[in-house]
Write a structure and sequence with these properties.
Layout (H helix, E strand, L loop, with lengths): L6 H12 L3 E5 L17 H12 L5 E5 H5 L2 H17 L4 E7 L3 H12 L8 E4 L5 H4 L3 H5 L3 E7 L6 H4 L8 H13 L9 E7 L4 H10 L3 E5 L9 H4 L11 E5 L1 H4 L10 H24 L1
Parallel strand pairs: 1-2, 1-8, 2-3, 3-4, 4-5, 5-6, 6-7, 7-8
Helix pairs in contact: 2-4, 2-13
Length: 292
């Protein structure tokens, strides 16, 4: 069942209860010459569900990267729906990493697909703002009923600056997007002082993240890039707020899901749990050092 509670308040409660800002990213890689994407003797759904269950008490949400399920066709999409439903039964928020955004009627369909009550119902989703305000507008009514949005502002990939850092005209384009996210989010601030219209800011750009916090003081910021992409815990927390909540959630995907490749004495769920425990502790320590 999708909660009607303010999304950021729910995430903040879980964060405080678990002393965690860690998000489990479920990115079941495709097969490669080096290794299969799903371990031998596992189905896709079993692999995802056992990893989620093993890490459930360490994380505040589970983020599903849709591309890896879509690439597997109908079987992949069935596994996605099943894994999302399993996550909800564990009382964990589901984030659909969909990066959607299109003309108004198409955005409305995307919003219903991922923020409605269908097979892919999620508590929050990532969206792309670069088609402008009319592409974002259809998503906002769902925020009123407890859903959350994470707007792409400054992404973690190496070439993100090709467009996001271009002057527009006197400062980077991403800063203008950040200011607009702040405006969109103002009506949706919860009791924790955070808005359910949040942003995606990559951990690989900590200086940008510090600037983003100034531009979006109430946004809940989803931080990719920690773990396999090389950013440190301190980098991932560069946009953390002072009080009453850190205002960031930090995603780790491959470093958790595929921990068994480097921890060969353990089965995938056990290796994933140990990796999640270590990351949760590392982030908690880095956050305490910031506050201290």
């Amino acid at each position: 069942m999708i909660s009607s509670m303010n999304f950021t308040d729910r995430v903040t409660e879980l964060s405080q209860a678990k002393q965690s800002v860690l998000v489990l990213g479920v990115d079941p890689q495709l097969d490669s010459p080096q290794a299969p994407g799903v371990p031998t003797d596992y189905s896709l759904n079993r692999f995802c569900s056992e990893i989620i269950e093993a890490c459930a008490d360490q994380v505040v949400a589970v983020k599903f990267q849709l591309a890896f399920f879509e690439a597997r066709g109908l079987d992949g999409m069935r596994a996605l729906a099943e894994a999302m439903a399993f996550t909800r039964r564990l009382d964990l928020p589901v984030i659909a990493d969909a990066k959607r955004g299109d003309i108004g009627s198409t955005s409305a369909a995307y919003a219903e697909a991922f923020l409605g009550r269908g097979n892919f119902a999620s508590d929050a989703m990532t969206i792309n703002p670069y088609l402008g305000a009319d592409a974002i507008a259809p998503f906002l009514p769902y925020v009123e009923s407890g859903r959350g949005l994470f707007v792409l502002v400054k992404t973690s990939n190496p070439s993100s600056g090709d467009f996001q850092d271009l002057p527009a005209p006197h400062r980077p384009l991403w800063e203008l997007v950040a200011e607009q996210v702040h405006k969109w989010g103002e009506p949706f601030v919860g009791e924790a002082g955070l808005s359910s219209v949040g942003a995606v800011i990559g951990a690989t750009y900590p200086a940008h993240a510090e600037r983003a916090r100034i531009l979006m003081p109430r946004a809940l910021i989803l931080v990719p890039g920690y773990g396999a992409q090389g950013a440190s815990a301190a980098d991932a927390l560069a946009a953390a707020s002072d009080a009453p909540a850190p205002g960031v959630v930090v995603n780790a995907s491959r470093a958790i899901m595929y921990a068994y490749r480097n921890d060969t004495s353990r089965k995938p769920p056990e290796a994933a749990r140990r990796a999640a425990q270590a990351m949760r502790a590392e982030l908690a320590l880095a956050l305490a050092q910031r506050e201290g």
